[in-house]
Write a structure and sequence with these properties.
The complex is a heterodimer of chains A (about 400) and B (about 60). Chain A is α/β, with parallel strands linked by helices and about 400 residues long. Chain A has helices spanning about 10-20, 65-70, 105-120, 125-130, 135-150, 160-170, 180-195, 240-245, 315-330, 380-395; strands spanning about 1-5, 25-30, 40-45, 45-50, 80, 85-90, 95, 175-180, 200, 205-210, 220-225, 225-230, 230-235, 260-265, 275-280, 285-290, 305-310, 335-345, 365-370. In chain A, a hairpin with a 6-residue loop joins strand 15 and strand 16 (about 285-290). In chain A, helix 2 (about 65-70) packs across helix 10. Chain A is globular, with a radius of gyration of 21 Å. In chain B, the strands form two sheets. In chain B, strands 1-4 form a two-stranded antiparallel sheet. Chain B is about 10% helix and about 25% strand. Chain B is globular. Chain B is built from one helix and four strands, in the order E-H-E-E-E. Chain B is mainly beta and about 60 residues long. Classes of the chains: A alpha/beta (about 400), B mainly beta (about 60). The interface of A and B includes residues 32 and 49 of A.
């Protein structure tokens, strides 16, 4: 069976690697001059500046992506974050580790009350109506966690989805950093693809997908360099853009999450560990310092600190305010902003806000969507791996 | 006089890939990409731009 994959992002590459290992013939079409999409990096002045992700895997080596990479045989070492997270309490630099014990009992009881209300009464409001019941620390952490991990605010997520994420964190543990950064992960996948005779076509954008008369099956793919027929088509570009390729808006427009990432060079470690530093009460929601796990991600003697800020309105004004905030957070540290990267529209933080995914299916029996646009019940790249796992099991019988 | 200019259209989101891969330090980005005087119009950036936001406009002298 011949399979065409549209887009060489993490989702497209993971799916291709698994299918090739199972004996399928796979061609990957990528419009850009590089593979990895928003999960790779460019070497800029000796810093590995990631294209999207923060060189971090939400559940480290024990999560869905870590396990999938291991199964494929990718040689990626993932350093689990220790501590998993800290909260920056004040401008004086006071911090506490994120542990259940640091949150007031009253707020933990509220959480239990919401769990019961959901389980027994199916009460499932968005988190903005619940967060007011929390103490200042718990509310601040909730906002920072959502901003950091999903680039959203409490009004964007229902309680049941937050509960699912909480349970996943309990099950798989907190984040980890791949040695070599995101690029190492996609480089390994491309090795697998090439060694199994898969074809990766860069700078060959797909222009159109042509359906049959009954409009329930894709017959042909039209790319910049020619027309080809396959048995099965896998899109890594989200439902909205896939719909544009077939010339049919087959689902509601996706609501994407937006954000800004700052890559910062520091001479001395600011965070000093491999976990996340959540920042409270401002625009910046959190930071990590990946060079504590892998010094090769920055030039010798430098550290790479990355900060994330969710975006809701005009990028430029928000970035100016974000930069002011960084100045106060990094007060007393020698630092230099290396890159500022914003993400929205067709190149967002997440193609669909977590919990609003449509699943992998399309109206065409031989066309599915994988990747950020069709995540399973988990966040970021671990959600991508889960979505693919489900699709491969249901459509190809691959367990 | 320059034979061509490089322009960035409104579809730019500011992902900075152009700045990161430019061999001439020819782009600044703050929310949106802006081409600066170092630009050599090599167009390497356009091959990395996810939104196809960067274009070259020829200022050909054939019309006078």
């Amino acid at each position: 069976m011949r399979v065409a994959v549209i887009g060489a992002g993490l989702g497209g590459l993971l799916t291709s690697a698994v299918l090739l290992q199972k004996g399928y013939k796979v061609d990957v079409f990528e419009k850009l001059n590089f593979y990895g999409g928003r999960f790779t990096s460019f070497n800029y002045k000796g810093f590995q500046i990631s294209t999207g992700a923060l060189h971090m895997i939400p559940h480290g080596r024990r999560g869905p992506l870590g396990k999938m990479l291991k199964k494929i045989g990718c040689k990626v070492e993932i350093v689990d974050s220790k501590p998993e997270g800290e909260i920056l309490l004040s401008e004086r630099g006071e911090r506490i580790e994120v542990r259940s014990a640091v949150f007031p009992l009253r707020s933990k009881m509220k959480f239990l009350k919401w769990v019961l209300a959901y389980k027994l009464l199916r009460k499932d409001p968005t988190m903005d109506s619940y967060e007011k019941e929390l103490d200042e620390l718990s509310m601040g952490f909730l906002r920072s966690f959502l901003g950091w991990s999903l680039s959203i605010s409490p009004s964007d997520i229902r309680f049941s989805k937050l509960l699912a994420i909480y349970q996943r964190v309990r099950e798989h543990g907190g984040p980890g950093i791949p040695v070599g950064g995101c690029k190492k992960v996609v480089d390994e996948l491309v090795e697998v693809i090439k060694s199994n005779n898969g074809n990766l076509h860069l700078r060959n954008p797909v222009i159109k997908l042509t359906a049959n008369e009954g409009n329930d099956e894709i017959q042909k793919i039209i790319t910049k360099r020619g027309e080809f027929e396959y048995d099965f088509y896998i899109s890594n570009i989200g439902h909205g853009l896939t719909g544009r390729l077939v010339g049919k808006e087959y689902c509601k427009p996706e609501k994407e999450s937006k954000g800004v990432k700052y890559s910062i060079s520091v001479d001395e470690p600011f965070i000093g560990h491999t976990g996340v530093l959540f920042t409270l009460g401002g625009r910046i929601s959190g930071m990590n310092e990946v060079t504590n796990a892998d010094p090769s991600l920055a030039p010798k003697g430098k550290h790479l600190l990355m900060a994330h800020q969710p975006l809701y309105i005009d990028a430029r004004e928000e970035i100016k305010k974000g930069l002011e905030e960084l100045k106060s957070i990094l007060n007393g540290y020698k630092y230099e902003i290396i890159a500022i990267q914003s993400y929205y529209n067709d190149w967002p933080v997440n193609r669909v806000i977590s919990g609003l995914d449509f699943g992998y299916k399309t109206p065409y029996r031989n066309l599915v969507v994988v990747g950020d646009g069709a995540k399973g019940d988990d966040i970021e790249v671990d959600g991508i791996a889960l979505g693919i796992e489900r699709m491969l099991s249901e459509m190809f019988g691959i367990k | 006089m320059k034979k061509s200019i490089v322009v960035v259209d409104d579809s730019c989101v500011g992902c900075s890939f152009c700045m990161l891969i430019c061999p001439y330090d020819g782009v600044n980005v703050l929310g949106k990409a802006e081409i600066n005087d170092n630009c050599n119009a090599c167009m390497k950036c356009s091959m990395y731009c996810p939104n196809s936001s960067i274009k070259k406009i020829n200022l050909d002298s054939s019309e006078g």
